[in-house]
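Pentatricopeptide repeat-containing protein structure dump, as promised
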Amino acid sequence: MWGAGMSPDKITYRTLIGGVAKSGDLGFALEVFDEMRERGVELDVVCYNMIIDGFFKRGYFVKAGEMWERLLREESVFPSVVSYNVMISGLCRLCSSGKVEDALQLYSTMRQKNCVNLVTHNTIMEGFYKDGNCKMASKIWAHILEDKLQPGIILYNITLMGLSSCGRVTDAVGFLDDALGCGVLPTAITWNILVRAVIF
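structure tokens r here:
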């Protein structure tokens, strides 16, 4: 682009990085990202998020962590709620490797900075349930109520599935009653979760 006398802006770089990261060519995405800095184009947290997410999705967990550290060292670009959610989601994919603890540490940081949302809670709870850690998942539910967030059916379904997988079917049924009491209507997925839990 520069050779043709054109000066790409932040949006052009963001679009290019996003497309290249999605295609899996993360080496080139990093080259474009570094060129952005060299050319004096303002860096942007969205570009960081796309590259970190790309690394996680391709299984390059160390690289994702290195990119996260780069973001934290930035003086003019700061992690957003999306950045934290990307990291938590990526770390929760590694729950069998014990990385859920790293996700929990990030989650705690987010709560201290008051930048958690329901997506954050959904992700971390699902990670704990997949790890078989029902106790920690229950603590996250308590934080949701503490933070005065209104859980929707997705979070209820994650909890129902998690409780069922931990062998707590009675608690899962009680949880459904709680959802109904809060005006949260079950979906076909909700009923499938409970039917499977009772039958199997």
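The chain has a mean pLDDT of 87.
lmk if u need the other ones
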